Amino acid sequence: MPTTVDMTSTALYERLQHEVALFARRAEQTRLGGVGRARNSMDRAAYLLLNRLDREGPMGVKALAEGMGIDSSTVTRQVAPLVEAGLVKRTSHPDDGRAVVLALSPRGLERLEEVRASRRELMAVVTEDWSADEREAFTELLTRFNLALSKYHLTVAQGD
What we know:
- The chain is 67% helix and 8% strand.
- The chain is built from 6 helices and 3 strands, in the order ααβααββαα.
- A 3-stranded antiparallel sheet has the order 1-3-2.
- Helix 2 (44-56) crosses helix 5 and helix 3 (61-68) packs across helix 4 (72-84).
């Protein structure tokens, strides 16, 4: 899968990798936490887990792990404090009582909505001098970039 980088592209790829590194650091510094009361109040793993459960509904640990591209033991470890905090509830699978299904609790949904609103406000503040077209283009390109990274990591993981 490696590609050859010609000399004319080297400077552009150097800038791109540097900007991605800066973005990752700044995102971690702010935790993309938003503004107001919910600022910096939910870590990335919790946000992504709650968000997936909200968007896709209740599911087992294995399905959640596969959908997020991480292993089941990581999901189990990350979900434990969310269950303890009452943001996620564990129930028995309706068809197989031995299997566990994870679902977003009403409290979890309320908390997730709080954090989403705060993060939307941060995005509005950070891009306030951008046009609507620029925000749309950036979002589309960032989505495309994230999908390409996911595809790359999935391909690399399957090749191991």
